[in-house]
Specification:
Helix content: 25-40%
Structural class: alpha+beta
Oligomer: single chain
Largest sheet: 3 strands, antiparallel
Strand content: 15-25%
Radius of gyration: 20 Å
Number of helices: 4
Shape: elongated
C-alpha cells in the first residue's frame, strides 16, 4: 500500500505509488471534468513513462489547463490532450558553475551558468526585479559579500 497525497485523499481518487493523483490526458480527474490537477500533485504518463514532478512540467500543465478552461467558458473547441515538451535541464553546481542539457547539447562551467542566469532572470515577473537580482549577483560576484540593505 502506498501513501496518498492530501489531494488524492480529499478527492477520494486513484493515486500512483508516489501518492500523486492519476489524471486524464486533459489534466482532469476521471469523472470530474471540472477538477484539474497539475504539477507534482498530478500523475500522468506520456510515451509509457510518468512525467517528472518538476517546475517545467507544472508550468506547461498550468498554461494548458488555463487555455482549456478559457476555451470551455468561451464555447470554443477544446485543445488536444496535454503533451509535455522537454526543454532540457539546468542545475547550478557551484559559484559560477552549472550544467545544462537540452537535446544533444551538453554544456558545463561558466557558459552554462550564464545560460542558467539568463533563463532565471527571464522568468522573474517584473523588470525591476530582474534588475535588482542582476545587481545583487554582480555585487556578490565582485565583493563576495551580500548587497547592503541600503541599496
Amino acid at each position: 500500500m502506498w501513501h496518498q497525497s492530501p489531494a488524492g485523499k480529499w478527492l477520494n481518487v486513484e493515486t500512483d505509488r508516489a501518492g500523486r493523483v492519476r489524471v486524464q490526458k486533459d489534466l482532469t480527474v476521471p469523472g470530474h471534468p471540472e477538477i484539474f490537477v497539475v504539477g507534482d500533485t498530478a500523475s500522468l504518463d506520456q510515451d509509457g513513462k510518468p512525467l517528472p514532478g518538476v517546475a517545467q512540467v507544472a508550468m506547461q500543465q498550468g498554461r494548458y489547463a488555463a487555455k482549456l478552461i478559457h476555451r470551455r467558458v468561451t464555447g470554443k473547441s477544446t485543445p488536444g490532450p496535454f503533451r509535455y515538451f522537454d526543454k532540457g535541464s539546468m542545475a547550478v553546481v557551484g559559484k559560477g558553475f552549472a550544467v545544462l542539457q537540452t537535446g544533444k547539447i551538453l554544456l558545463s562551467g561558466f557558459p552554462a551558468w550564464l545560460a542558467w542566469a539568463a533563463v532565471h532572470l527571464e522568468f522573474l515577473a517584473q523588470a525591476s526585479l530582474r534588475v535588482s537580482v542582476f545587481v545583487q549577483w554582480v555585487w556578490t560576484g565582485l565583493t563576495e559579500r551580500e548587497v547592503p540593505s541600503s541599496l
